[in-house]
Design brief:
This protein is α+β, with helices and mostly antiparallel strands. 29% of the residues lie in helices and 24% in strands. The protein is built from 18 helices and 34 strands. A 9-stranded antiparallel sheet has the order 6-7-8-9-17-13-12-11-15. Strands 26, 28, 29, 32, 33 and 34 form a 6-stranded mixed sheet that branches. Strands 5-4-10-16-14 form a 5-stranded antiparallel sheet.
C-alpha cells in the first residue's frame, strides 16, 4: 500500500452539535461518547474536556450503489436513561444496519456491535480523528486488522475484522472521496502524516464487533481494544449495566413523558461529570455549530454557574454527597482573590478570562444550602475559607459585574445582584463569616438589596405606556452614575445597540426564586407581562423564551450557522425559569415542563436553543426543535429536573436560603448606605448613615451645607481589604466631599454631594 499523497488545506470541523445521546460506562473508564445523526460523534478521553475524534460513520455499498447512513438520516434510536448502551437502527434502500454502542467500564474503550442486512452489501467504517482537541496535525495509518491514529501522547485504535484499510487526507485522499469519485473503495493508502486525516476500513463479515480505544500510545490503544474484544460485547455490557445500577433512583411519579424526561436529565447529569477530576461538570459534550468550524473549546468546559446549577439539582434529589464533590472541586479551583475563571478545563486550567460576579456568588449559595440541609460538616475549614474568600471578592468588586450571566455586557443585573445579595447575607447569617466581616457583609447586602430597584427598575417609559404597565425591571443596567439609562451594545450584532429601557429579560425572576421579592410584587407582575408580550415564543412543541430583544447568538434568519453574528433563538432553560415562577405564584407549571420535554432531540436531550421560525428542511431546522446550538445543555437539564422535583414534591426552590428569604420578605431595611463611585447615591434617608468606600486608602475632604465645617478625615480599614469613612448627616441637609489619595499624592479633582432626606 502506498502512503496517501498531498496535504490539502481544507479546515477540519467538529461533528454536529445536536446530539442524539451521550453516554459513558462509569466505573474506572475515562471515556465518554456521543451520538449524532445516528453515528458516533465526539469521543472524549481521558477527561470530559478532551475530545479526540470528529466522528465514526458508516458507508453501505453494494451492487446498487453506496450510501452514507448519516446523510440518509433514516434511523431509530433505542436508548434508556441510566443504561450505558444504545442501539441505532438505520434503514435505507435495500439495507438495514443495526449498531450497538457499549462502553467498557474497566477500560478506555467502546465496543460497537454491527449487523448489516441486505443482499451483496459490505460495510465501511469511516473514522475522522481529532486528537488533542484539533483536526490538525494528526497522523493516521493502517495495520492488519487495525485503523490507528496518533498525535503527541494521544492515540486511538479501531480494531475489527477488517479486510483492508486506507488512511488519507480529508477532502483529497480520504475514503469518502474515494467512493465519491470511484463508487467503491479503490484506495489503500497505508499512512497519512500530520494533517487533517481520515481512516476507512472494509468489513467483509456482515456481522461482528468493533472496538475503539484510546491511550497515550498506539500500542496501548491496541491492547485495550484487543482486550475488550476478547472479553466480548455481552460480558462488557453486563458489567457496564452493573456499574450504572448503583446510581439508579426512584423519581416522583408524573405524566409519563415528563417523568421520562426527568430520568433523562438525571442521566445527563451523571454522564457530564468527570472521573479523572471528580466534581467537574462540563456544560455540554458538544461544540455548538461544530460542523462549520474547528473550535477546541466548545462547551466541553466547566462553567461554575452551570455546574452549581447541577449541584443544586443533586440537593433537590436528596444526594448531598454529589453536591459535596462539586463543592470540593470548586474549593480546589478558586482563585486566590476569591473568584472563579469564566470557564475551566476539567483539570482546573482557565480557558476564557472573563469575570462574572454570579460565578463567585453561586458556589457560596451551594455551600450555605448544604449546611442548611445538614449536608456539610461544620468543621470543614476549607469550605469555610472558600466562602470567606468568595464573599470578600463580592464585597470588594461588586455590585457591578464585568460580565452578565450571558457573558456579554458589564453592568448591574437583577440575576447577578440577587445571587450576590443572597450570598453575602447568607454567609453572615449562617456563620461562615464572623465579627466585623459578618456585620459588614450583611450591611452591604441590605444596602444593595434596597438599591436594586434604583439600579434595575424603570417606570413611565414608552414601553410601559405601550403595554399599560407602571414600570419594569431591565435585564441589565450599564455601569455608571446614570442608573438604568443610556444604551447598551448588543453582542454579536455589530453596530446594534438598545436603550436600557428596552433591555428585557427573565433575570428578575430570580429575585422571587431567592426570596428577595414576593411573587405578587406589582413590579414583578408588570415586568412579567412585558416579557410575556415580547420574548415569549409559542411553537408547535410548546412555550419558550428568547434571552432578550435583538439577541445575536444563534443561527441567521436563513438558517446559516452562528458565525460570530446571528439572531438569538428561544431557550428551553428559560421555560424552566418561567415555570418555577409560575409555581411560586400559585400557577400551573406543567405547560413549561411539557415544553421543555417536547423541544428535545430524538433521544430526549434538551438543547441550548430551539429553532423559532419557519422550517428550513435542507438545514434540518424545525420550529420548536433543536437548533445547531449545544445539546445536551447541563444547565437546561438541571433546570428541568429541579422544576419537576419542586412541582411533584411540593417543595420550594432548592436555591433559596430560609434565613435570607425570611429577612428580605419581612422588609429588612439598611441602616448604612455604602457609597461607591461606580454606584454613587444622591440622597440619604434620615435614619441612615453613609459609608464612603474605596479599594485603597484615602483622605476625605468634606463639608456640610455648602462646604461649611470643612475638615479632612482619613479612611479606616474595612473588612475584605476595603477602606472607608463612616458619616452621620444628622443635623445637616447636605454633605459635599472629594478624595485625596496619599499614596499617590494627588487629589481626585471632582466633588460629590449627598443630600439628607428622601430616597437614596
Amino acid at each position: 500500500m502506498a502512503e496517501a499523497f498531498g496535504r490539502p488545506g481544507i479546515p477540519p470541523t467538529w461533528a454536529s452539535s445536536a446530539k442524539d445521546w451521550v453516554g459513558t460506562a462509569l466505573g474506572r473508564s475515562r471515556l465518554w461518547y456521543t451520538l449524532g445523526r445516528g453515528i458516533l460523534n465526539e469521543v472524549y478521553w481521558p477527561a470530559t474536556g478532551r475530545p479526540q475524534m470528529r466522528d465514526l460513520g458508516f458507508l453501505v455499498a453494494g451492487p446498487g450503489g453506496w450510501h452514507e447512513v448519516k446523510r440518509v438520516g433514516r434511523y431509530q434510536l433505542l436508548a434508556e436513561p441510566l443504561f450505558p448502551e444504545v442501539r441505532v437502527v438505520h434503514e435505507g434502500e435495500g439495507y438495514r444496519l443495526t449498531l450497538d454502542f457499549v462502553p467498557d467500564p474497566d477500560r478506555d474503550a467502546l465496543l460497537i456491535g454491527y449487523h448489516l442486512e441486505g443482499e451483496g452489501l459490505r460495510l465501511y467504517p469511516l473514522l475522522a480523528p481529532h486528537l488533542g482537541g484539533s483536526g490538525w496535525g494528526n497522523t493516521a495509518w493502517v495495520e492488519e486488522g487495525a485503523l490507528l491514529a496518533a498525535k503527541g501522547n494521544e492515540a486511538l485504535a479501531l480494531l475489527g475484522p477488517f479486510a483492508r484499510g486506507s488512511a488519507g487526507y480529508v477532502g483529497f485522499s480520504d475514503g469518502w472521496q474515494d467512493f465519491a469519485r470511484n463508487g467503491a473503495m479503490t484506495w489503500t493508502f497505508s499512512r497519512a502524516e500530520e494533517g487533517n486525516v481520515a481512516l476507512m476500513g472494509e468489513l467483509l463479515a456482515p456481522r461482528g464487533v468493533l472496538a475503539l480505544a484510546l491511550a497515550p500510545t498506539p500500542e496501548g490503544a491496541k491492547t485495550l481494544a484487543k482486550a475488550a474484544l476478547v472479553e466480548g460485547l455481552e460480558e462488557v455490557l453486563r458489567r457496564a449495566r452493573e456499574a450504572w445500577r448503583a446510581f439508579r433512583l426512584e423519581l416522583p411519579k408524573g405524566e409519563p413523558e415528563l417523568e421520562r424526561e426527568a430520568y433523562i436529565s438525571y442521566h445527563v447529569l451523571k454522564v457530564l461529570e468527570d472521573r479523572t477530576f471528580p466534581g467537574a461538570m462540563v456544560a455540554s459534550l458538544s461544540v455548538p455549530w461544530g460542523n462549520t468550524r474547528d473550535d477546541p473549546g466548545g462547551y466541553h468546559l466547566v462553567w461554575t454557574r452551570d455546574q452549581v446549577e447541577a449541584a443544586f439539582t443533586y440537593l433537590a434529589l436528596g444526594a448531598p454527597e454529589e453536591a459535596r464533590r462539586v463543592l470540593a472541586y470548586l474549593a480546589a479551583t478558586q482563585a486566590p482573590d476569591g473568584h472563579w475563571p469564566q470557564n475551566l478545563y476539567p483539570d482546573g486550567r482557565a480557558y476564557w478570562q472573563g469575570v462574572q460576579l454570579d460565578e463567585a456568588a453561586l458556589p457560596v449559595l451551594l455551600a450555605l444550602r448544604l449546611k442548611e440541609l445538614g449536608g456539610l460538616e461544620p468543621q470543614n475549614g476549607a469550605i469555610r475559607e472558600m466562602v470567606r474568600r468568595a464573599a470578600g471578592f463580592l464585597a470588594r468588586e461588586g455590585p457591578v459585574s464585568p460580565q452578565d450571566r450571558w457573558e456579554e455586557n458589564p453592568g448591574l443585573s437583577p440575576f447577578t445582584l440577587g445571587v450576590t445579595v443572597a450570598a453575602l447575607a447568607g454567609a453572615a447569617l449562617y456563620g461562615f463569616l464572623e465579627g466585623e466581616e459578618a456585620e459588614y457583609a450583611l450591611s452591604l447586602a441590605d444596602c444593595w438589596n434596597a438599591r436594586l430597584e434604583e439600579w434595575c427598575y424603570l417606570s413611565g417609559t414608552d414601553l410601559d405606556q405601550a403595554h399599560g404597565v407602571e414600570g419594569h425591571y431591565v435585564r441589565l443596567s450599564p455601569p455608571g452614575p446614570l442608573g438604568p439609562r443610556g444604551r447598551v451594545q448588543v453582542a454579536n450584532r455589530p453596530g446594534v445597540s438598545l436603550e436600557v429601557a428596552h433591555l428585557l429579560g427573565l433575570e428578575f425572576l430570580w429575585l422571587v426564586r431567592l426570596g428577595l421579592r414576593d411573587p405578587h410584587d406589582p413590579r414583578v407582575r408588570a415586568t412579567l407581562h412585558l416579557v410575556d408580550q415580547t420574548l415569549r415564543v409559542e411553537l408547535p412543541t410548546g412555550v419558550f423564551y428568547r434571552r432578550y430583544p435583538e439577541d445575536g447568538y444563534g443561527e441567521h434568519e436563513d438558517g446559516r450557522a452562528f458565525d460570530g453574528t446571528g439572531r438569538g433563538r428561544a431557550w428551553p432553560l428559560l421555560s424552566g425559569e418561567r415555570g418555577m415562577y409560575a409555581l411560586l405564584a400559585g400557577e400551573d407549571p406543567t405547560p413549561y415542563l411539557r415544553s421543555m420535554a417536547a423541544g428535545t432531540g430524538r433521544g430526549g436531550l434538551i438543547p441550548e436553543q430551539v429553532w423559532d421560525q419557519d422550517p428550513i428542511p435542507e438545514r434540518g431546522l424545525s420550529p420548536g426543535r433543536p437548533s445547531g446550538s449545544a445539546m445536551p445543555l447541563l444547565w437546561a437539564h438541571a433546570e428541568y429536573l429541579k422544576l419537576y422535583l419542586v412541582w411533584s414534591q411540593g417543595k420550594g426552590p432548592v436555591e433559596r436560603l430560609g434565613r435570607v428569604a425570611e429577612r428580605y420578605l419581612a422588609g429588612a431595611v439598611p441602616r448604612v448606605r455604602h457609597w461607591r463611585r461606580e454606584v454613587p447615591l444622591s440622597r440619604l434617608k434620615p435614619q441612615e448613615k453613609l459609608l464612603v468606600e474605596e479599594r485603597r486608602p484615602f483622605r476625605l475632604h468634606l463639608g456640610f451645607d455648602g462646604w461649611k465645617e470643612v475638615r479632612d478625615v482619613a479612611s479606616e480599614p474595612l473588612p475584605f481589604g476595603l477602606h472607608g469613612v463612616l458619616l452621620d448627616l444628622e443635623g445637616h441637609g447636605e454633605l459635599s466631599f472629594t478624595f485625596f489619595f496619599p499614596e499617590e499624592g494627588r487629589w481626585e479633582g471632582r466633588d460629590y454631594a449627598v443630600k439628607r432626606g428622601g430616597s437614596g
